[in-house]
Amino acid sequence: MKKWEDEVTVRVDRPLAVSKKQFTKTEIKALIERAMREETGADFAFMNAGGVRDTLPSGQLLERHIWNIMPFDNLVVIGKFKGRELPPVVLNGKQVDPDRDYTLAVSDYTAANQSARSELNATGLKFGDDVGILRDIIIDWCRKKQVLE
Fold this sequence. Notes:
This protein is an alpha/beta fold. The protein has helices spanning about 1-10, 25-40, 65-70, 90, 110, 135-145; strands at about 15-20, 45, 60, 75-80, 100-105, 130-135, 145-149.
């Protein structure tokens, strides 16, 4: 067991960023959506609240913290949709041009379960190929940000 823990420690206990505050799961959901938008260039992103598995402490963050939040190997997929096709949960009250094309980034889990109320509460949305593992995208984004507020 110690052998495996030592191997994992080397991989995930690397400094990543500094958090200026403790983040709740709801706040982390918003951070993940922001990371997905900024790292993929998507106009909108959606993260299901149930997929956020931990909180973030204030102070030094390690890659382990992101692994604890996102222990799954979910992939990020992107779809291109007209404004009128975007689910209300994604818009979050924002107005869009119904005839303009927008890009939406979600996890492959959300895309596959899009009709669920906890997900997009929509059907028929087609997403393209994946653009990477969600956890890796979050880690890369945090590393670039260096400070989370």
